[in-house]
Amino acid sequence: MYSNPSSESATESHAVIFEQPLNERMRTYLRLEFLYRQTLFHQALPDRWASRAAVSSLLEILAITARGDARADALKELERQLAVLNEFRTRDGVDSDRLHSIMTELAEHRNQLNGAAGGAFMQNLRDSDFLNAIRLRSAIPGGTCEFDLRDYFHWLNQPYAVRQTAFNEWMTSIRALCEAVTCLLWVTRQNSRPQNQTATAGHFQLNLDRDSHCQLLRIALPHDTTLFPEISGSHYRCSISFMEWHGVTTRSTQTTQDVAFLLTTCV
Q1: Bridge-partner residues for 243, per DSSP?
Q2: Rounded CA separation 141/35 (Å)
Q3: Which one of 6, 19, 42, 216 has the fewest CB atoms closer than 10 angstroms to its CB?
Q4: Gap between the Cα atoms of 161 and 173, Å rounded
């Protein structure tokens, strides 16, 4: 069931991957992964504009995790994936070392999340007067400029090491959840192999087995393509239209050509 990541990397190295979540949990996970990567990227840069971008991404992570119990949901999904993987222990042809490695990593993320502060999870960030002031002013266009938030401007002009110390403290609070979500998404992406498909006249209809519990669609197109997919539907039925890109000043249109692509349905 779980393919070697090196083989998938070889398949996708010359492709652009478009992903479509098919349930609310997967939407949340993809957004968290996106924001976490963005935070890490900007946090590592010494420029103060990068620090601004990292803080903005951090605040969006807090906003997403404020809805529902992201920690409990991730723990539940970790347990589900471990149970699914456990069924493969006795099957023929399974790489037992690889399986053990994946299960060990999932178990480590589960233990780290279990060690997080329960109901007070991320509460230190939510109670931060400094971050809350930035969050409130961020709702106003240009609301975090120098004359609006003097202390924020002062902090941004501190040496990079000072800003990095603060970021390291903040990241400690979100790392367990974000790393667990990143791992869960990796497992979800790995659990199915891509299939060659053709969209006739740029349109493809996908009917999913109600018992398959598909969570994520992945569409791979060549890097040099002028096409991108528009996807609508649910976890039972999806419609995929391939649109022709004409630039930022002209509306995209559906292609009338047949389109060959790779489709992966991830459960």
Answers
A1: 228, 254
A2: 20
A3: 6
A4: 19
| 195 within 8 A of 263, measured Cβ to Cβ | yes
Over range 49-65, report the average pLDDT: 96
Closest CA to 138 of 55, 43, 47, 65: 55
Domain residue spans of the chain:
24-190, 195-266
Asked whether the beta carbons of 25 and 75 are under 8 A apart, the reply is no
CATH of domain 24-190: 1.10.3900.10
**Alpha carbon 28 to chain centroid distance?**
8
DSSP 94: -
Over 111-155, what HEC string results? Answer: HHHHCCCHHHCCHHHHCCHHHHHHHHHHCCCCCCCCCCCHHHHHH
Question: How does pLDDT run across 133-147, given as a tens digit for each residue?
Answer: 999 999 999 999 999
The predicted model scores a pTM of: 0.89
Please tell me the distance from the alpha carbon of residue 231 to that of residue 228, in angstroms, as a whole number: 10
Two tokens at 165?
Answer: 């110390």
* Angle made by CA atoms 178, 181, 182, in degrees to the nearest 5: 85
Question: Looking at residues 43-57, what average pLDDT do you find?
Answer: 97
Residues 45, 22: Cα–Cα separation, whole Å: 34
Cβ neighbours of residue 239 under 8 Å, at least 6 residues apart? Answer: 203, 204, 205, 206, 231, 232, 233
Sole residue written with tokens 């996106």: 34
Cβ pair 57, 259 in contact under 8 A: no
CATH number assigned to the domain covering 195-266: 2.60.440.10
